[in-house]
Amino acid sequence: MEPIIGIDLGTTNSEVAFIFNGEIEVITDNDNGIVPSCVGLNESGNVIVGTEAFNQALVSPEKTILSVKRLMGAEQQIKLGEELFTPQEISAFILKGLKERAEKRLQQTVSKAVITVPAYFTDAQRQATREAGEIAGLQVVRIINEPTAASLAYERVNPETRRILVYDLGGGTFDVSIVKVEQGVVEVLSSTGDNHLGGDDFDWKIVDHLAGEIQTQHKISVKDDPMIMARLKRAAEKAKIELSAAPFAMVEEDHLVKHGGKDIHFSYELSRTAFEDMIEPDLSRTMESITRAMKDAAVLPSAIEKIILVGGSTRIPMVSRMLEEKIGLQPHGEIDPDLCVAMGAGMQAAREMGLEDSGVLIDVTPYTFGTSALGEIDGRPTETRAVPLIRRNTKLPARKSEVFLTVYDDQEAVDVQVCQGEAPDALDNILLGNYLFELTKAPAGSPIVLHFDLDLNGILKIKAVEKNTGNEINAVIENAISRFSDQELVDTQNRINGIWSGKGSAVDGEDNASEKPDSDNALPAKYEEMITRARATLDAAAEDDRDEIINIIEDIRDAAAEERWEDADAACSELDDILFYIG
Ligand code: AMP
User: Which one-letter DSSP state was computed for residue 36?
Assistant: First the structure.
């Protein structure tokens, strides 16, 4: 039987699982199975992944790519050595590492996988994940949502559970889902979250705090030194993890910086209370998401029977405390929060192999998909009234059709727009696709039937049919990112394989590699990340907000170009606030 592996492709860490003798096992390789989602270049210019890449991040931050998952679906180029890569290609290196790990354990070639993604991943991000798999030589037989995978893993241990709340706070993403488990059927009733919130953000908050402290103690600004910032980031994460078990953590960084010919040793005690103050606004936002998820699922807190914790950041004691206050239940951590999703992916993979048929997976769409038509908004006529076809939280796979009528006699064509979002005006939603449908001559009022077909992987197929003639157009939403043609895929696979085995085009070069956009004035990653995040909201933002966002992006760029880091940070935080309110 051809093996299918389950992969949790995480922002910070990834894992691969497989069923051995009826038991799901997270595959280890002289470690605990947790593989940093890290890609880098070593001294000889070869690509390295996982722990090896993570370990060199400190000494060569400019040759290491972290958190690439946050860029999935974006049309961004990442420079590594002499070459530019797409986020899919960088993710493919991580997947190749996991594939090899599985092959070593299974002693056979593996070419199929189930991969998990955050419930809130857009169509473009799911497509990018699928492409990453293909480039790595893995046919992605199914993409499932992370909270769904966690529920699957949990259901195996607790078959009696009825309604569970899955709270997933990882390194870079947050999801909350309400899941119903009944007689082996796992149904996600609702899912919501923020795909730009996680432990990474908490680390950066500590880093900012520490940099401020260094400024106060030693009158030195360290914010524009990537090496020092990388050291502080690692120290911040270490302190954060310690604070999950102790009320205080010492940050000790010897020889952190040279100043006036002297080495500065930085030493600082961070208290859990101070850390909790920093992250309280973020955690409060996650609690608001819970309210929304419960509302969407029409479930009261009293109906929740279990809370499952997923993701490393749920080890922060304040998370459990706030959840207990909100729901009145103590969260469960029977299954390792780091491995829960991978185990669920492994279970689903086993099912795909026909080995585990104990349960049926029902998934829902976290987005509303619709089109735009003539109509009214608040009593005013408009050409861009949003018409939802598949509503948020509809079970997948979902198929919906709607009839539209031509407006003029002998209308020559109709512009079929496909939008994502729930705003009444289609202009405020995200435009996913725009297809011109040429019509045959017919009187006004001739029907056109629009079909939307959303599959379990979140891939949306569209068909518009002219009812009188049966003429039709078909499209698959490929979103902003370009899909590969077969030849492009083969070329990309060959290129990545060549680099992977160290035989292909050299990736080392005089020029230091760095995770930077393809631009002359590359910005530090945290600004780039924020700008990417802001750009993603532009289509859906109201005009005033859009202008303001664009202005602040310019402010960040200007401040960074002039190395006014405090101004850049202030602009960044202003942007963060706006995005939060818009969100
Ligand atoms: P994940 O994306 O689920 O792998 O979660 C990774 C995140 O969890 C990183 O930001 C880690 O720093 C964080 N993390 C791991 N262990 C702990 C801990 N004991 N306390 C707080 N955060 C943790």
Answer: E
**Is the distance from CB of 144 to CB of 130 less than 8 angstroms?**
no
pLDDT of 221 > 70? The answer is: yes
In CATH, the number for domain 369-455+459-474 is 2.60.34.10
Tell which atom from ligand 1 comes closest to the C-alpha of 10: 2
C-alpha–C-alpha distance, residues 35 and 160, integer Å: 32
199-277, what's its fold?
Actin; Chain A, domain 4 (3.90.640)
Residue 23 has pLDDT above 90, yes or no: no
Catalytic residue list contains 569: no
Q: What is the pTM of this model?
A: 0.66
Catalytic residue among 83, 123, 134, 168: 168
Tell me if residue 378 falls in helix, strand or coil.
coil
CB within 6 Å of ligand 1 — which residues?
A: 10-13, 170-171, 198-200, 237, 240-241, 244, 311-313, 315-316, 338
The mean predicted confidence, pLDDT, of the chain is 86
146 is catalytic: yes
DSSP letters spanning 228-289: HHHHHHHHHHHHHHHHTT-SEEEEEEEEEEEETTEEEEEEEEEEHHHHHHHHHHHHHHHHHH
Q: Give residue 422's pLDDT.
A: 83
CB 161 within 8 A of CB 155: yes
Which sequence spans correspond to the domains of the chain? 4-198+283-362, 199-277, 369-455+459-474, 516-581
pLDDT band per the 50, 70, 90 thresholds, residue 356 = low
CA of 171 to the centre of ligand 1 (A): 6
Q: Which residue type occupies 123?
A: D
Is pLDDT at 517 greater than 60 in this prediction? no
Task: Give, using CA atoms, the residue closest to atom 19 of ligand 1.
Answer: 241
Q: Which ligand 1 atom is at minimum distance from the Cα of 240?
A: 21
580/583 Cα distance (integer angstroms):
5
Residue type at 66 in one-letter notation: L
Name residue 144's beta-bridge partners.
Answer: 116
Does the annotation count 31 as an active-site position?
no
CATH superfamily name and code, 4-198+283-362: ATPase, nucleotide binding domain (3.30.420.40)
Q: Are both 4-198+283-362 and 199-277 of the same fold?
A: no
| Among 301, 275, 305, 302, residue whose Cα is nearest residue 290 | 301
Q: How far, in Å, from the CA of 563 to the mean position of ligand 1?
A: 31
The residue whose C-alpha atom lies closest to atom 22 belonging to ligand 1 is 313
**Integer Cα distance of 194 and 208 in angstroms:** 22
Q: What is the DSSP string of 68-106?
A: GGGGTTS---EEETTEEE-HHHHHHHHHHHHHHHHHHHH
